[in-house]
Amino acid sequence: xxxxxxxxxxxxxxxxxxxxxxxxxxxxxxxxxxxxxxxxxxxxxxxxxxxxxxxxxxxxxxxxxxxxxxxxxxxxxxxxxxxxxxxxxxxxxxxxxxxxxxxxxxxxxxxxxxxxxxxxxxxxxxxxxxxxxxxxxxxxxxxxxxxxxxxxxxxxxxxxxxxxxxxxxxxxxxxxxxxxxxxxxxxxxxxxxxxxxxxxxxxxxxxxxxxxxxxxxxxxxxxxxxxxxxxxxxxxxxxxxxxxxxxxxxxxxx
Length: 254
Ligand SMILES: Nc1ncnc2c1ncn2[C@@H]1O[C@H](COP(=O)(O)OP(=O)(O)OP(=O)(O)O)[C@@H](O)[C@H]1O
What we know:
By secondary structure, this protein is α/β, with parallel strands linked by helices. The protein is about 40% helix and about 25% strand.
């Protein structure tokens, strides 16, 4: 019998994926289904291959073996134009937010819109910038430059800049890295608000167990090149598997 999650569409389907760099075997048979509208957290120690997996999902790297299907497309079969079309439906939230320092918040948000969406009037652009800024709770910063913002605010603007293109999939890379605990919780709440408001399907890469607990509908732990444990945070946390337990023991939960 199918449960509620299994009845939903699979947005990202990863089947038996292998990737090695020379003798270094990074992914050794990775399987993961990410269903429409869910937040899946990928946990794993440094160097376990989380970024490699994300790069394979967006076609920046090719797997040696296995299948990666995103929004119904087999990524390794796409040509450059098809890949670009697919990437337009995927929003990346990078660790360092990657804002343009010399541009105001308004200009930072206008930039991806004007570059990617043809035929928008000035009024459309203004409306969309103001609306996305309101979604991340930072309307008052519209005329500021990134150096005038806190780390948490920069992170929010980075997320807004991604959301303005209305992605179907969001990929968050260490969204809470370098932020204080209160700001971390605010960013976790924002990730959940984005899911509700923009109906996104997300993969969140993190070492932060509080982030995993607060944002993950499901958590997948990458160990020795495979997802050894996938389930709710509580299910994975209850694991008796030594390597999973040792990951938790090393990572402080607030
Ligand atoms: N293009 C590449 N060529 C060779 N080796 C690579 C390449 N990309 C990644 N690797 C290696 O693959 C392994 C996994 O790297 P990856 O960046 O995916 O780790 P990660 O889990 O994202 O780590 P972190 O949490 O520190 O970001 C590392 O040993 C890395 O050196």
